[in-house]
Write a structure and sequence with these properties.
With about 450 residues, the chain is of the alpha/beta class. It is about 50% helix and about 15% strand. It has helices at about 10-15, 45-55, 80-90, 110-120, 145-165, 195-200, 245-250, 255-265, 275-280, 285-300, 310-335, 340-345, 350-360, 365-380, 385-390, 405-410, 420-450, and strands at about 25, 30, 30-40, 70-75, 100, 125-130, 170-175, 200-205, 215-220, 225-235, 235-245. The strands form two sheets. Strands 5-4-6-7-3-8-9-10-11 form a nine-stranded mixed sheet. The protein has a two-stranded antiparallel ribbon with strand order 1-2. Strand 10 (about 225-235) and strand 11 form a beta hairpin. The chain starts with 9 loop residues before the first helix and ends with a helix.
């Protein structure tokens, strides 16, 4: 035996003309091995029979073009009488190029030769349906040396060789096991993963017994992932809705995000100041920038083991609250009546004296409110400081990792209990009292200045 590998160069491969992948149903059923799996008695055989009729006559399937060809249907769980009755229910004019068989050999026991002989006799055959897969498998072959996975993979690969050598599509009808998998429905296919692994395209038909609506899931090497909603009416599966990967991903996105995106498309430029823009940035963004830029900078500049420290938290908090304080303060200053400033200037005061001796005192209450809001935001901030402070409980030092009161509450509340939980509520109470103390102090001084 010659064990030398037969290789082909990438340049040769790209320059060699090759035909495109043949589709029996455009965009749905390509050449190769296709496995259709579903629970028993939910309408798989009706679907396959209708598919065979449509393809053999060149009629569309759910609005998708088909390649007209001869079809071989191995209906191994039925009799000729049952097939005839079903044909009467579906059509009045059965095509000559749709062929049936109710008995055949097993995989590795004559099936391959039977299919190849049929293909040689009927050269226009492009679709073979085997209903069901288990009927052509050796029920005693699952305990071989290769194990269940190996036997499953070998059986499907044996059928796949015929499909690849003759450029046809073979559909294997299979069953689902009772054990459900909420994460991946394709794991519900009966047998090992060797079946879906060796197949080129996998179909899952899911339907509740009490409902005439089903979902057909499609995944394969030559087709994109699809979800088709079908309805069983008058013994025919009709298409209700077809979704591709993009449609499914869009359905998972909340609708309000699309409305926000449409709104932002109409806003081509920013109208406002840089301070207003900075004031609207979420705190987690400040924390992320601090973690990526500030923390490494402190480590390199001050030659400390870790830049995540109290200094980094102080800088991030200062940068974070300043835009808010400035924005509210400017709003208060702009609200000062213009007559005050005009009168000051008319009396001979300079613009600087007018600003500091007239405008600022008149807006003092608003500026104080801005400071209280900024300090309150700094005291209550948890996420940003957690990202840059190191979040380690140490005695406060400028270049050492520390844990703030807010970060302690945020990081431990989810799993705390008993005395620990009581301590966390005590921390929250201390933060509340601290903010109340700041408000009371500022109100005291403002009231005293007003009385004076």
């Amino acid at each position: 035996m010659n064990y030398k590998l037969k290789t082909v160069g990438a340049e040769t491969l790209l320059s060699t003309p090759m035909s495109k992948t043949m589709f029996i149903v455009d965009g749905l059923i390509p050449q190769g091995v296709n496995v259709l799996s579903g629970a028993s008695k939910i309408g798989k055989s009706w679907l396959m029979l209708w598919l065979g009729l449509q393809v053999s006559q060149g009629l569309p399937v759910w609005g998708m073009k088909t390649q007209q060809c001869d079809v071989l249907y191995l209906s191994l769980e039925d009799t000729h009488r049952r097939i005839k009755d079903r044909l009467y229910n579906l059509t009045d004019d059965a095509p000559r190029n749709l062929h049936f068989a109710v008995m055949c050999g097993l995989i590795g026991g004559g099936l391959e030769e039977q299919i190849i002989d049929f293909l040689n006799e009927h050269t226009d055959t492009k679709l073979v349906i085997i209903d069901t897969l288990q009927k052509v498998r050796d029920s005693k072959g699952s305990a071989g040396k290769a194990g269940m996975y190996g036997n499953d993979y070998d059986d499907i690969s044996s059928i796949k060789r015929i499909a690849d050598e003759h450029n046809i599509a073979i559909i294997l009808v299979h069953h689902l096991r009772k054990l459900k998998d909420g994460d991946d429905p394709f794991n519900e296919v009966s047998g090992s993963t060797g079946i879906i692994g060796a197949a080129d395209t996998n179909f899952i038909l899911k339907r509740k017994r009490s409902d005439n609506t089903a979902t057909l899931l499609v995944s394969g090497r030559d087709v994109e992932y699809q979800e088709l909603t079908l309805q069983f009416n008058d013994l025919v599966w009709e298409l209700v809705e077809r979704k591709n990967s993009d449609d499914i991903h869009k359905a998972e996105i909340p609708n309000f995000l699309f409305r926000v995106a449409e709104f932002m498309k109409s806003r081509t430029e920013w109208v406002g100041t840089a301070t207003e823009l900075l004031a609207g940035i979420p705190s987690v963004v400040y924390g992320l920038v601090g973690m990526q830029v500030l923390v490494p900078g402190i480590r390199k500049l001050f030659l400390v083991p870790d830049g995540a420290s109290l200094l980094a938290a102080i800088i991030v908090l200062a940068i974070m609250i300043l835009p808010s304080i400035i924005k509210v303060s400017m709003t208060s200053l702009e609200a000062v009546p213009k007559e005050y400033e005009d009168a000051s200037l008319a009396l001979g005061a300079t613009p600087v004296e007018t600003y500091f001796r007239v405008s600022v005192p008149a807006a003092k209450s608003g500026i104080a409110a801005a400071v209280v809001l900024g300090v309150g935001r700094a005291i209550g901030e948890a996420m940003a400081v957690m990202m840059v402070s190191g979040n380690v409980p140490n005695m406060p030092e400028l270049f050492q990792s520390v844990r703030f009161l807010t970060t302690a509450v945020a990081s431990e509340m989810s799993y705390s209990s008993g005395l620990q939980r009581q301590a966390l509520f005590s921390i929250a109470l201390v933060l509340f009292l601290f903010i109340m103390l700041i408000n009371a102090t500022l109100n005291f001084f403002l009231k005293r200045d007003k009385e004076a």
